[in-house]
Each structure stands twice: as structure tokens, then as C-alpha cells.
Amino acid sequence: MRSSDPWRPRRPRTLAAAAVLALAAPTLAACGSDGPGGGGDTLEVWVYQDGSSTIQQEFVDRFNETSDIDIELTQIPGESYQDRMRTAMGTPNAPDVFFNWGGGSISDFVAEDMLVDLTPYFDDDPEFQDAFIPTILDAGAVEGRYYGVPMRGVQPVILFYNRTLFGEAGLEAPATWDDFLTAVDTFQRDDITPVVLGGADIWPNMMWLEYLLDRQGGSEVFDRIRNGDASAWGDPAMLYAAETVVELVDSGAFGNDFRSVATTNDGAPTFFASGEAAMHLMGSWEYSNQLTNQPEFAENDLAWTTFPTLPDGVGDPSSVVGNPTNYWSVNSQVEGERLDAAVEFLKLHGDEDYAQALIDNGDIPTTSNAVDLIGSSPNPEFAQFQYDMVENAASFTLSWDQALPASQSAPMIDAIDQLFSGQLSAQEFVDSMQEL
Fold first, then answer.
1. What DSSP state is assigned to residue 196?
2. Bridge partners, residue 282, by sequence
3. Is 2 helix (H, G, I), strand (E, B) or coil?
4. DSSP letters of 56-123?
5. Rounded to 5 degrees, what are φ and ψ at 49?
6. What count of other Cβ atoms lies within 10 Å of the Cβ of residue 170?
7. Distance from C-alpha of 365 to C-alpha of 349, rounded to nearest angstrom
8. What is the pLDDT of residues 217-251, one digit of tens each?
């Protein structure tokens, strides 16, 4: 989240499930010297391993040069990150500080008093709070209290495409759904997979439903779901989105083996960069991943556009889906000097040096000075596109599995997998979701 991305694992677990797993799971490296509540001189920080984790390591090293309490950064592969994190929380093996997605992804921990409420630190240090874009900071809050500090770039979902393949086929970036379907047909005739999809991870499949629903019915439909109206799963726009997904799968738009392709092991991005696929719907981190792992492709072939409009859709074409960013949260068992050190570490992420490091990596930081740094990006054109996309969006719908509590998101992810695999029809998918 990248391995290949800063998004999510396949099946988030509830705290109850995590507790059961903790009894059977192999013991992880203990946090600090004595666990999160210990009195040692080390903080254990967990991060999702990907193309940006080198930045986190760099700033951990900087912090350790002047701090009496050192940080040990543990980089965990994306495919196992959240399972390990949720299993460890509440045990002596829990991290002191850890990477997450804010909001719904940590609400269970907040309910169990497992996290430090950071609100007083922002209140006492207005410069710390003002360093971040307010809407991004608020997006990581739970019930109006801050439990996370932004630590990566903004993450809208973008339709990436191979400009070379499109040029050779005489095609422009698809602005409408008809344009998109024309591209699918054209690339199939040329024996090129139209769209690479990391279906083995399941959550990339969700992005298609998210945008199709948003473009067809507007952001209001999922707003109703997020606010507890289960009947909104039965909205005609949701059925349309599910039916369209089935049509794409049946037409071969995603190829024949997408359920065996993963994003978290860099399989889908590598396949895309090889020229075997023409398009990839993915979070904005796709650019920085490709810049790190496939720089020639990133510089010569990678292009981007917004999700196409639908012929009868009522959704605002400027709306985006995705994640505002990722966050650091602090285990509530961390106290005293170790907590003071943890907070000082968090404050580094509001500094211009950190924002510049994200810019250099192809990301758009969530700091309030981001617009002033865009010109120094490795690709100012992409940086400006991404910034404008977020700045001008009529709405920014949080990724469904992060917006919903784990008790709903886990069965939803399973149902999405069954929809894409043909085990559920579009109507059966809608019916099953209304029963949650």
C-alpha cells in the first residue's frame, strides 16, 4: 500500500477475530524493548512496505541522530500488513506507532481505547495542526478526535494508461464510456489485455464498483450506505455498477487470469509496465511505484486520466474516490518519555523537508504548503494533475472498505470477490449487501 500500494489487505478482521488469531499466530518481534507499555529506550514503528517506505526509513534515521529514544522501523509486506497489525494490537507484540488508513480502519481500536488521542497535541501546538490540509487531517479523525497524523501523499484513484500503446492504436485517453469500450475492443483485437486488474487482492476490484456507482448515481448513494442506510445497496445505480462489472469480466476486459494476478506483490504493476496491458485503474501511488521500480516506463509510457463519464450517469465527473492519505497512530500503552518521543517523530511529518521528500518521490503531500512544492516534482505535469483533481473534486469518496466498519467491510470484500468470480450475479450481490 506497495509491495505495490498503500491501500488495504484482502480481508480486514474484526478485533474479536484478531484476538483469536493472536493466540495462534507466531510471535512477532516485540515492540520497543518491553512491548508498547514498556520502559525501554526504543520505539517500534510499523509501516506498509512499498515504494515510499524508503522515505520513512530516511526520516527515522534522521530522528535517531538526535533522539535519546531510537526508532526501529519494521517494514511489513503489503499482503500481510493489516492482518499482522490487527492481530498484534492489544498484545505485548503490538507496535508503538503504526501506519493505517484513518477513519474506519482504526475505529475499532479507538472504541477499545487502544490509541492515543492526539487532539490535545494539536491544540497545544497550532503550528503542528496548521501544517496539514484541514480536510485531510479531519479525514483521519474518529468522532471528531484526532488519532492519526498524515504521513503520505493524497491518494485519489486514477485511470492510468500506456500512452505508447494508445498512440500506436490511434486512440486518445478515454473520456466517455463509449471511448473506453472502444479501447477495450481495439486492444483485444491486438492481443493486448485492455485492463490489468490485481484480482487476487480483491480490493482493486472494488475501485471499479466505486467509480461506476459514483459516475452513475452520484456520491450520495454511498453516503447513504456509510451513514447506515443498508437499503442504498439496492439503489438502481448500484445494480448498474454490478451489472457493468459482470459485463466487463465476461467480455475479457480484464483478461482471463486476473484473479491470479496480485497488486501487493507488484505483479499487476509489472505486467502493466511490460506493455502487456493498456490500462490500470489504481491509486495515485502507481506513479511513484513505477518511478521507483520501472523508471523507463514511468518516464516514457505512463499517462493518466480521470475515470470516464457514463452515458446516463448523474454523478459529477469531477468527483473522485480513493483515500485522502495514510496516517501514523500511537498505541495508548506508550507513555512518558517514549510518548513524548513518538509525538516529536509525528511532528517531523509536517516539516517542509518531509513534504519535499514526498514530492521527489512523485507524491503530493498533505501539508498546507504542497501547492508551492509541485514545481519541483519529478513530473510536474502529473503532480499538478493530481493536485487539481483533488482540489477541484465535487466530492472525495473514501474507499468503501475504509469507510465502513470491519464488521461490514469484510463480508463486502468477500461479496465483491464472488461478484467478479461469477459466484454471485449482480442482483445477488446487491441482495447480499442489503442483508448486512
1. -
2. 158
3. coil
4. HHHHHHHHHHH-SSEEEEEEEEGGGHHHHHHHHTTSTT--SEEEE--GGGTHHHHHTT-B---HHHHH
5. -75, 125
6. 7
7. 10
8. 999 999 899 888 999 999 999 999 999 999 999 99
Rounded Cα–Cα distance for residues 275 and 277 (Å): 5
**Where is 344: in which H helix or E strand?**
helix 336-347
Which residue is associated with the grid cell 487539481? 388
Q: b/e string for 378-403 if b means 16 or more Cβ within 10 A?
A: bbeebbbbbbebbeebebbbbbbbbb
Entry pTM = 0.77
* pLDDT tens digits, 91-114: 999 999 999 988 878 988 999 999
Structural domains of the chain sorted by starting position, each given as residue range(s) with its CATH number in brackets: 15-154+324-368 (3.40.190.10), 155-322+398-434 (3.40.190.10)
Start-to-end C-alpha separation, the chain: 27
Q: How far is CA 214 from CA 210, 241, 424, in A?
A: 6, 9, 22
Who's near 336: CB < 8 A, 6+ residues apart? 39
DSSP assignment, residue 45? E
3-state secondary structure of 343: helix
pLDDT single digits (tens) 1-24: 333 344 443 333 333 333 333 333
- 15-28 as b/e: b if 16+ CB within 10 A: bebbeeebeeeeeb
Distance of alpha carbon 44 from its chain centroid, rounded? 23
Distance of CA 277 to CAs 8, 160, 252, Å?
Answer: 23, 11, 12
For residue 152, report the phi and psi dihedrals to the nearest 5 degrees. Answer: -140, -170
Phi, psi of 94 (to 5 degrees): -70, 150
